[in-house]
């Protein structure tokens, strides 16, 4: 079965004992790891207990196809239910998982940890279609979901957030759940034990130069028409494992803000007033650069760029073609278009 929305969190907190196999997959690797850890802790008190937790890899199953069933059927020497975690799961292990789902042994919970899987994935289809299996997609936090993560994490430390600070955090976090939590924990340490309100200045001081720095730099390079800089930063982000869809969404967000600002100027506002009206506000270190982009782009051209970026995102998620290539092609097209207007 496939779980979505609020059902996922409820299941992760208290897994249905009838479910024997859980596939945790998606582009947000931090959220995948977090949910795998929560599922493990819902069954065993100590995830490092070698008697109750077994870690396997796809390579292990290739060498020993019966290992999954053997581990799942094994009994813990210290008593209690066991967890069998299969790392790097992909379609190559479908043939090893299917016999276990059809004839499960023992009472262990089998957790399959995977990356992003297409709708056509055989492993995903297997787990979504089986009554004793569950598939949990993990996509980047955004919108209300990301705001909940921010409020819960800061609220647990006795902190509340101003509207401007929340808007800033929502625009700079969300690509990876573990990175988001790490940045928020840094903010908690920055504020100290006294609690109080997180201001825009607090958020910018802690998060502005770290979590999304590479993506912000890339967005500005594209809007500037800096083709060489765009390629250089793209190469670095891909080497670091940044998801192409996350990259496209961040650049789209930048152009949406640019669209609002340029539209306000065309409606009669001064460039400074239009830029200051944006929420979250433009980071002061790139204010002059952003105004230069406002002079370079028009509302119709920004609309064309957004259409191109959205089309690339859809293609990345639906065509099965190399996502990095489609992402790079779209960004280079936009950067070249801006470069011709320099």
Automatic annotation (TrEMBL):
Protein name, UniProt field: DNA-directed DNA polymerase
Reaction(s) this enzyme catalyzes, per UniProt: DNA(n) + a 2'-deoxyribonucleoside 5'-triphosphate = DNA(n+1) + diphosphate
Domain of life: Bacteria
UniProt GO MF annotations: DNA binding; DNA-directed DNA polymerase activity
SUPFAM superfamilies, alphabetized: P-loop containing nucleoside triphosphate hydrolases, post-AAA+ oligomerization domain-like
Recorded family membership: Belongs to the DNA polymerase HolA subunit family.
Sequence intervals crossing the membrane: none
Entry keywords, A to Z: DNA replication, DNA-directed DNA polymerase, Nucleotidyltransferase, Transferase
GO CC annotations, alphabetized: DNA polymerase III complex
Keyword Cell membrane belongs to the record: no
GO biological process, one term: DNA-templated DNA replication
Organism: Caenispirillum salinarum AK4
EC number: 2.7.7.7
KW Transferase (keyword) present: yes
């Amino acid at each position: 079965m496939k779980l979505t929305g609020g059902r996922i969190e409820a299941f992760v907190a208290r897994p249905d004992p009838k479910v024997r196999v859980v596939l945790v997959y998606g582009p947000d690797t931090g959220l995948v790891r977090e949910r795998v850890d929560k599922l493990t802790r819902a069954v065993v008190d100590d995830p490092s207990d070698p008697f109750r937790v077994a870690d396997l890899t796809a390579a292990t199953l290739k060498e020993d196809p019966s290992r999954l069933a053997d581990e799942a059927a094994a009994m813990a020497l210290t008593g209690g239910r066991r967890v069998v975690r299969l790392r790097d799961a992909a379609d190559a292990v479908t043939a090893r998982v299917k016999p276990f789902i059809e004839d499960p042994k023992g009472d262990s919970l089998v957790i399959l940890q995977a990356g992003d899987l297409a709708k056509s994935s055989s492993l995903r289809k297997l787990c979504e279609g089986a009554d004793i299996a569950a598939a949990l997609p993990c996509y980047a936090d955004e919108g209300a979901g990301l705001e909940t993560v921010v409020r819960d994490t800061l609220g647990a430390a006795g902190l509340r957030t101003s509207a401007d600070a929340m808007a800033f955090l929502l625009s700079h976090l969300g690509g990876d759940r573990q990175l988001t939590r790490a940045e928020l924990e840094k903010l908690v340490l920055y504020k100290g034990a006294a609690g109080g309100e997180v201001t825009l200045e607090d958020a910018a001081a802690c998060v502005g130069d770290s979590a999304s720095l590479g993506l912000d730099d890339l967005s500005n390079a594209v809007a500037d028409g800096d083709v060489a800089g765009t390629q250089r930063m793209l190469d670095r982000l891909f080497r670091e494992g940044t998801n192409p869809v996350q990259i496209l969404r961040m650049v789209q967000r930048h152009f949406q803000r640019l669209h609002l600002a340029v539209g306000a100027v065309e409606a009669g506002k001064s460039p400074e007033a239009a830029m200051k009206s944006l929420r979250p506000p433009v980071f002061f270190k790139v204010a002059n650069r952003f105004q230069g982009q406002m002079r370079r782009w028009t509302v119709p051209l920004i609309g064309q760029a957004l259409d191109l970026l959205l089309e690339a995102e859809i293609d990345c998620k639906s065509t099965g073609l190399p996502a990095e290539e489609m992402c790079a092609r779209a960004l280079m097209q936009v950067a070249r278009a801006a470069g011709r207007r320099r």
